[in-house]
Request: fold
Amino acid sequence: MLHGEWKLRHLQERIRSFSLRAPKPEASSCKDMPSLAPALFVNHGGGPLPLMGDRGHTELVKQFESGLIREAFDKSCDWDCIIVISAHHEAEKQNEVEVYADEESPGLLFDYYGFPPETYKYKLPNPGSPKIAARVKELLETPSKGDIEPFQVRIVLKRGFDHGVFVPLLLLKVRPHIPVIQVSLVGGKPGCPMLAHRNYQLGECLKPLRKDNVLIIGSGMSFHNMQAFSHGTSRLKSVSEKFDKGLRDVIEAADKREKHITHWAQTIPFAAECHPREEHLLPLFVICGCTDEGERLIPLGGSLMGCIRYSHFIAGA
Reply:
């Protein structure tokens, strides 16, 4: 048996040894631990540009340094774990969710090209947490809500944290000892309304972890169509502003949020032009599912590259 296969089997046995019926992870001793951890959707920008001092990302970077995002992150002085759902990690199979579960740091996946050599040398040494991964696995395989179909969960080793994970965490200056788990988007057919709905349900399954001092971050872009630059910046600005307003209307209507998310492509103006594929918007839908009934997701807007309107969304700030 190859070493990698042995390690995966060993880790799977360890994960099976944990159970939701066992005591929950011990709460942090931090006196500032909130009763309900925040859930955040953040825009991670273009590749490594936010980490490079790119002028078009100045406002976005400042929002990670101060304001609502920073306040939400600083609600606990020591998170028991941070779970990140990145737009750049889509499960391969229908109804499948991939969970990184190793104890060691997986290193980084530099899933961009054409940038200076120093942008391939970033490090994020944070370990994983098999204990929290075990809870994630069981929450997804045995949903507490009867109307949610169980997910198929696949344990992943050494994929590496993609830039949807390491860019926002480096901007937030996450302490290196805090465990980080990457959870993929639900696998499915792009453009199918059920895909948006299933990712919302993924969030519903993860929601109980907010009571265990676990911070949940969805990392994507509320606007994502790089080809649209060829249409001219004036149209780009106009279209992104109209889409952003429609997106805010959907997300802030807490009583109708789930229904509108399922049919977001028909509900929000210029949806297809702003998101030819929905993978960068799906992490937001996961975060919507993480919220309590009636809980508000506070929008935090900004401008990217001088012409793209975007919004972060924060619950529990």
User: Anything to note?
Assistant: Residues 19-31 have pLDDT under 50 and may be disordered. The beta strands are 39-43, 81-86, 96-100, 152-156, 180-182, 214-220, 298-304, 308-315. Residues 3-19+32-315 form a domain with the Protocatechuate 4,5-dioxygenase; Chain B fold (CATH 3.40.830.10). The first strand starts at residue 39 and ends at 43.
